[in-house]
Amino acid sequence: MVELNCETDFVGRNEAFIQLAKDVALHVYAAKPKYLRREDVPAEALEAPDVTSPEQYYEDYVLLDQPFVRNPSQTISQMLTETIAKTRENIVIGRYVRFEIGA
């Protein structure tokens, strides 16, 4: 489940906005991000012995830095920026949650 915020209901009904919401939800399901943005990552997570580089950790676990599962050459942040350019309105991923049954 993804909370995607925009400034007007006009954009909320826009096909590009709706597709972004679907794509981000699909990505959250498939990629299992732990954090929304870099600022959300606790310092202890980056200092763990198995972390080889902070950049790689961000790419693996931060939603906005992850490559999109359907198009790995584009990050979620880039998709967001692209949709903002199309709609000419600010769009923000407010939060997300991933449910898994039987895990």
TrEMBL record:
Entry-linked Gene3D superfamilies: 1.10.286.20, Elongation factor Ts, dimerisation domain
Domain spans labelled Translation elongation factor EFTs/EF1B dimerisation: 1-22, 56-102
InterPro entries from the UniProt entry: EF-Ts_dimer_sf, Transl_elong_EFTs/EF1B, Transl_elong_EFTs/EF1B_dimer
Cross-referenced SUPFAM superfamilies: Elongation factor Ts (EF-Ts), dimerisation domain
Pfam families xref list: EF_TS
Main location: cytoplasm
A single MF term (Gene Ontology): translation elongation factor activity
Chain coiled-coil ranges: none
Tagged with keyword Mitochondrion: no
Organism domain of life: Bacteria
Location within or outside the cell: Cytoplasm
UniProtKB keywords: Cytoplasm, Elongation factor, Protein biosynthesis
HAMAP family assigned to the protein according to its UniProt record, in alphabetical order: EF_Ts
Family recorded in the similarity comment: Belongs to the EF-Ts family.
Entry function: Associates with the EF-Tu.GDP complex and induces the exchange of GDP to GTP. It remains bound to the aminoacyl-tRNA.EF-Tu.GTP complex up to the GTP hydrolysis stage on the ribosome.
Descriptive protein name: Elongation factor Ts
